[in-house]
Specification:
- The chain has 2 helices and no strands.
- The N and C termini lie far apart (69 Å).
- It is rod-shaped.
- It has helices spanning 2-20, 30-51.
């Protein structure tokens, strides 16, 4: 009985956590993250060069 309650609490916690994740979190590979970071860096460089 106590074990059942314990697993129910854990399962509900995971459900709440999973709803906070973006729907495509599994598709976020390290390569995709690196490309996004490079894109942000180049956008920042363009913004800075536009100021000068």
């Amino acid at each position: 009985m106590i074990l059942h309650v314990f697993f129910t609490v854990i399962l509900n916690g995971w459900k709440k956590f999973a709803t906070l994740l973006p729907s495509n979190w599994l598709a976020e590979t390290p390569q995709a993250l690196a490309l996004r970071r490079l894109g942000r860096q180049s956008a920042e460089r363009e913004r800075i060069s536009g100021i000068n």
